[in-house]
């Protein structure tokens, strides 16, 4: 019940900023009313704005090889994209194959990158629910064998549950993300409060993009011995790692390094230069 309420809120928020659906192959989940979100099956829809009359859908039963490919007709009005499945073109020839023909009403949100909405079966009773999809670079699969494992389904369920946008949007955010050094007080490894919001923003990206990792490198100015500064730079990098861990970032997404005073970015003869050298730098890996 809690998950059904959550996805209803998600679909409402997704409808607040709608636009024409970009061409492409979309993949995602199809959830029947009363079904747990994590048990949702897999759905693909091929959309070509130049040829709405000859589109296709592919539904796959989660964690099986059961599937059905259907020809569909698409229409678009100011409120939604309407997709009606017309003919089963191929299927896994099993009585449990997803043969019910569906009618979808979907909306695309440029801010989230999701195509989402509702469905109702045209020929199977009590088969209604919701759909959430996102655009991929895949070629639509007409073959008997699934083109992919269903691991992406688990990633999508997690993204929806945490309120993350679609992978296409996340990648744009990653490309646009601007690193800035975290500066420290003299002989200190405590993160200043003004950097917390920036670090939380980076943590969201790390959490949302499953294969994204970050390297955290600590530095010092030239005050003190080389051995002491190596230890101080390590403590500064460790403070950042601890901050990310408290945001729920897995340790395997974090790599730590420390250079002491050996890689300054300014001279160490002025207070301003020393301050710039007392820092932690970042790099996505």
Characterise this structure:
The chain folds into two domains: 2-163, Lipocalin; 177-284, OmpA-like domain (60s Ribosomal Protein L30, Chain: A, 2-Layer Sandwich). A hairpin with a 4-residue loop joins β5 and β6. It has helices at 2-14, 151-162, 167-176, 196-208, 226-246, 271-277, and strands spanning 18-19, 24-32, 41-47, 55-60, 67-76, 81-91, 102-109, 114-121, 128-136, 182-183, 214-218, 254-258, 279-284. It has six helices and 13 strands. It is of the alpha+beta class.
List the defining traits of the structure above:
285 residues; alpha+beta; Lipocalin; 60s Ribosomal Protein L30, Chain: A; four-stranded mixed β-sheet; 6 helices; elongated
The strands making up the biggest β-sheet line up spatially as: 2-3-4-5-6-7-8-9
Instruction: Kindly report how far apart the N and C termini lie.
Output: 39 Å
Total discrete domains: 2
Which class do the helix and strand fractions yield?
A: alpha+beta
H/E order of the elements? HEEEEEEEEEHHEHEHEHE
Write the CATH fold name of the largest domain. Lipocalin
Largest β-sheet summary:
8 strands, antiparallel, barrel
Q: Indicate the CATH class of the largest domain.
A: Mainly Beta
